[in-house]
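Quick one - inputs below.
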Amino acid sequence: MELTEEEIKTAKETSQNILENYTCTDRGKIIPVLQNIQNELGYVPLPAMQTVSDHFELPAVDIYSIVTFYNQFRLIPPGKNQVKVCMGTACHMRGGQIILDSWERRLDIKCGETTEDREFSLERVACVGCCTLAPVVVMNEEIHGKVTPTRVDGLLYSYQLDKEQEEGEEQEQKAGEENE
Ligand code: FES
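Output:
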């Protein structure tokens, strides 16, 4: 996935700001620095890894190896809306894979990816603790239970309606400000 100019700029600035708190080049600090970057940006992009490698005077490939070794790190930007499909045992037994496939088809991305417009990212998660509702989807921290492919369409449709409403309100507000 190609990063936008803005994302590259933010990645560099954020990682530089974080590294200002680390005057030493003690390699034991690499993981805490990467964790801070991920906390700030939601992921650890290549330009940030480059900044970290310059600071610790290590080849960029070493930093890349660390980031890809630990699955706590994300390499691509998260979407504005994060869809997590539970693939714990109960959800898996009750059609979790079918639900994941439905999201992949509707969003036209694979699990672990983010849509080009950065609106949605899709991932699979382990049991989220409400197995009686299986199969479960967590969308922006909200739990949806007994999800079916039709429900996936419904969730996307209600997201579109909310977005249209938000855009309408923004336009009204702008028009109001211009008329003042
Ligand atoms: S397995 Fe999905 S909520 Fe427990």
